[in-house]
From TrEMBL:
UniProt name for this protein: Phosphopentomutase
Gene: deoB
GO biological processes: 2-deoxyribose 1-phosphate catabolic process; 5-phosphoribose 1-diphosphate biosynthetic process; metabolic compound salvage; nucleotide metabolic process
HAMAP family given in the database record: Phosphopentomut
Family: Belongs to the phosphopentomutase family.
A family per Pfam: Metalloenzyme
Organism: Oceaniradius stylonematis
PANTHER family: PHOSPHOPENTOMUTASE
Cofactor (UniProt): Mn(2+)
GO cellular component: cytosol
C-alpha cells in the first residue's frame, strides 16, 4: 500500500538561500524571524503569546531543518532531543520566487525561463494591453493599474469601484495580473469571465497568473476578500509529478489551490476549501479516500495570503501553532506504506520590508511508518521532493531531481 501525501505550507521558508542577495532578500528567514520575534515577546495577539510553540513540527524535525538551512540560533534552540521524522532543506533553482515556480519545481519541473513582469511604475500595465482588455471585455476602464497589496488597494479604491463599476487592476513583484471586484455588485461570474479574457491577452507576455480577487463589504472599513479567489495559471511546461502519477494509474487529489496552480493539469479531483482549518479537514478526508498509488497534494495558503504578505508576525506565529496542533491528526491518518512530506514553495518573511515573497530555502520534513528518522541534507533543488515521492509511488525516475527515499529505507 503506497500512498503519498504532499503538504505545502505556503511561504513557510527557513532562510539561507544561497542566491537570496540577487533577490534583495539576503538574510530573509520566515521561520527564523518569527522565532526571534516571538521569543522577544513581539508576536503577541489575542490568539497567542510568548515563544513559538510548535512541539509536533519540532518532533518531525522542522527546527533541525531550519538550523541546517541557515544556521539560525533561535531554531537550533528549539530542537528537541529526539526526532521522529526525516528532515532537510531544499534550495530553489527556478528563476522566480513565486508560487507556481515553487510548486512546479517541487513537482519536478523547475521554471528555468523568465516570467514576464509588470514594471514598478504607474501605470504598471501597457496602454495597449488595457485597451485590448476594455475592447474584448466591454468595460469602460479600470482603477489601480499599479503594484499594490491586495488588501490596501481595496481599502483605497473599493468605494470608487462601487461608485463607478470599474474593476481594480493591480500587480506585484510576482508575474501576476490581479483583478479585484465586488463579489455581488460587480458579480463573481463577471469577474471570472473578465479574468479569462485577460488570461488570453497576457499569454504572449509570459505572465504566470491572472488572479480573481473578489471582495464583499459596503465601505473601506468593512471590505473583506472572500474565499472565491481563483487563479488562472499557464500550463506547466513539462509533465509534472501529478501527470506522472495519473499516467501510472494513480489519482491526484488536489486540496486548496493546488488545482489552480497546476492549471488543472494532472489533477484527478479538485477539493477546494477556504482557510487553513477547512483545508486541514479536507486533507484528512482526502487521505481517507485515497488508495494505493494515489497522491494527496494540499496547499495551506493562509500563512502567505493572510500573514506573510500582510507582514503580520503574530498572526503568522499563531497560524504555525494552529497547524502544529492539527499535525497529530494528519500523522494519525498514515498507514503502513504511506509517506507524508511537508514543505513550502518560497518564503514570505513577515519581518521583511515591502509585502512580497522572499527567496529562501524551504523545509523538508516528513514521516512514514517504518521510514528512518534521519537528516537528508540540503537538497540542491525542490525537485528532489517530487522525485522522492515518485520513487515512493513506484512511478519511475525523471530528469530533474534525485530521490532520497533510499536514505529513509534499508535499500540504502
Ligand atoms: O497582496 P495580495 O493581493 O494578497 O497578492 C499577493 O498574492 C499574489 C499571489 O500569490 C502575490 O503575487 C501577491 O501580490
Ligand atoms: Mn506561495
Ligand atoms: Mn504569495
Amino acid at each position: 500500500m503506497a500512498r503519498a501525501i504532499l503538504v505545502v505550507l505556503d511561504s513557510v521558508g527557513i532562510g539561507g538561500a544561497a542566491d537570496a542577495a540577487s533577490f534583495g532578500d539576503e538574510g530573509a528567514n520566515t521561520v527564523g524571524h518569527i522565532i526571534d520575534r516571538a521569543a522577544a515577546g513581539e508576536a503577541e495577539n489575542d490568539d497567542r503569546s510568548g515563544p513559538l510553540d510548535c512541539p509536533n513540527l519540532a518532533r518531525l524535525g522542522l527546527f533541525h531543518a531550519a538550523e541546517l538551512a541557515s544556521g539560525h540560533a533561535g531554531a537550533a534552540a528549539l530542537k528537541p532531543a529526539r526526532v521522529d521524522g526525516f528532515w532537510g532543506a531544499a534550495q530553489e533553482v527556478s528563476h522566480g520566487k513565486d508560487t507556481p515556480s515553487g510548486h512546479w519545481e517541487i513537482a519536478g519541473v523547475p521554471v528555468l525561463f523568465d516570467w514576464g513582469y509588470f514594471p514598478h511604475e504607474v501605470p504598471a500595465f501597457p496602454q495597449s494591453l488595457l485597451e485590448a482588455i476594455y475592447a474584448e471585455a466591454g468595460i469602460e476602464g479600470s482603477l489601480g493599474n499599479r503594484h499594490a497589496s491586495g488588501t490596501e488597494i481595496i481599502a483605497d479604491l473599493g468605494e470608487e469601484h462601487l461608485r463607478t463599476g470599474l474593476p481594480i487592476f493591480y500587480t506585484s513583484a510576482d508575474s501576476v495580473f490581479q483583478i479585484a471586484a465586488h463579489e455581488t455588485r460587480f458579480g463573481l461570474d463577471r469577474l471570472y469571465a473578465l479574468c479569462e479574457t485577460v488570461r488570453t491577452l497576457v499569454d504572449d507576455m509570459n505572465i504566470g497568473r491572472v488572479i480573481a480577487r473578489p471582495f464583499v463589504g459596503e465601505n473601506a472599513a468593512s471590505f473583506e476578500r472572500t474565499g472565491n479567489r481563483r487563479d488562472y495559471s499557464v500550463l506547466p511546461p513539462a509533465p509534472t509529478l501529478l501527470d506522472r502519477t495519473v499516467a501510472a494509474g494513480g489519482r491526484v487529489i488536489a486540496v486548496g489551490k493546488i488545482g489552480d496552480i497546476f492549471a488543472h493539469q494532472g489533477v484527478s479531483e479538485v477539493r477546494k476549501a477556504s482557510g487553513n482549518a477547512a483545508i486541514g479537514e479536507t486533507t484528512l478526508k482526502a487521505i481517507d479516500d485515497a488508495g494505493d498509488g494515489d497522491l494527496v497534494f494540499a496547499n495551506f495558503v493562509d500563512f502567505d495570503m493572510l500573514y506573510g504578505h500582510r507582514r503580520n508576525v503574530a498572526g503568522y506565529a499563531a497560524a504555525l501553532e494552529a497547524f502544529d496542533r492539527y499535525l497529530p491528526e494528519l500523522t494519525g491518518k498514515l498507514r503502513d506504506g504511506d509517506l507524508l512530506l511537508i514543505t513550502a514553495d518560497h518564503g514570505c518573511d513577515p519581518t521583511w520590508s515591502g509585502t512580497d515573497h522572499t527567496r529562501e530555502r524551504v523545509p523538508i520534513v516528513g514521516f512514514g511508518p517504518g521510514l528512518a528518522a534521519t537528516g537528508v541534507g540540503i537538497r540542491p533543488t525542490f525537485a528532489d521532493i517530487g522525485e522522492t515521492l515518485a520513487d515512493h509511488l513506484g512511478i519511475g525516475a525523471d530528469d530533474d531531481g534525485t530521490s532520497f527515499l533510499g536514505e529513509l529505507t534499508d535499500r540504502a
